[in-house]
Amino acid sequence: MRFDTKIGIVVRDDLAAWQRLNVTAFLASAVAGGVPGVIGLPYEDASGNEYLAMFRQPVLVYEAGAAAILTAHGRALAREMQIAVYIEDMFKTGHDEANRETVRAVAAGEMPLVGFALHGPKNGVDKVLKGLRLHP
């Protein structure tokens, strides 16, 4: 199936494995919670057990160095795309309110980004993420 939109998540390539997974999970939840229509219907197995709904389309995960992430983030902002961010200081907080305060304290061009997610038209997302490599 072809989709007109794309979901991309970028994580910094020097993070520990647990950090990459954590950042990816948090950023995916932002897209799921913030973009209407990206979640499909709940699942059910042949035994009648019900399961939570998931994204209706693939999520592509990329990795990049800090400078490349900041550049791509700037392109996403310039295109006014729907994005979510995760910065280094969020590893030190323990709750959502503190996370929002850490982001609010830093200007966009100075964010110590460890990752960001975006959703938008496929060609726009491709232009924002151009040059980044898919996570192995």
Automatic annotation (TrEMBL):
The chain crosses the membrane at residues 21-39, 59-78. It comes from the Bacteria. Keywords: Membrane, Transmembrane, Transmembrane helix. InterPro entries: DUF2000, Pep_tRNA_hydro_II_dom_sf. The keyword Transmembrane helix applies. This is DUF2000 domain-containing protein. The lineage of its organism: Bacteria, Bacillati, Actinomycetota, Actinomycetes, Streptosporangiales.
